[in-house]
């Protein structure tokens, strides 16, 4: 895939490509009241990418932890994904959880993958057809993962990075949570931010549920240029919205990127930042 983002018009034109796989990465829990009526419909032939269960390490004490290679490979094959598959990922919020799934496939060595800009709401807004949610009868795929662990950062790396400054840490949470003036949604954790990180709220890179265009993104990422970083590491509450800002950065910033998988939930817990 030449671009990390495709339009609903592109998907509509290419939907009958035999190598195309559409993944619905919507979260099962309600994040926004507006998506209630989208919880029972999908784009035809979409397969459900269960981010919270099948594609997360269930043994971890932290949410949405990246699974091991074997689990990811096995679950992808169950979805009928092959090494030659062209994967398009969407969610029912427009852009919310789909970038996390996109990033995971990139980490696992599958680069023929993109996010549907605007997701299910944009697909519906353009008048394209939907169907009731169903589990398609798919043949097992042959997907083979090749994990690039340099794209996944852990607590020891982030701790050392405060002094070493190998990566510029970008926090995708709201400015209120970043600045510690709004409570953290996870009970028992204080709000605030990791030292030497900068704040680019994920909402700032979105407009009407879609990733902003390149011209609009350039000034948002302007502060990064002044830092002249060797690499970027993205963080948030639990590693999901960090991927939204990472996705947007792909359009304007050409440098090595990674995600702090445990994000603020892990950092605040291990640093003893509890109420």
TrEMBL record:
Coiled coil: none
PROSITE patterns cross-referenced by the UniProt entry: RHODANESE_3
Keyword Repeat among record annotations: yes
UniProt keywords, alphabetically: Repeat, Transferase
Entry-linked SMART domains: RHOD (SM00450)
Superkingdom to which the source organism belongs: Bacteria
Family matches, as InterPro entries: Rhodanese-like_dom, Rhodanese-like_dom_sf, TST/MPST-like
Signal peptide range: none
Membrane spanning residue stretches: none
All residue ranges annotated as the Rhodanese domain in the record: 16-132, 163-272
PANTHER family reported for this sequence: SULFURTRANSFERASE (PTHR11364:SF27), THIOSULFATE SULFERTANSFERASE (PTHR11364)
Name of the protein: Sulfurtransferase
Originating organism: Galbibacter pacificus
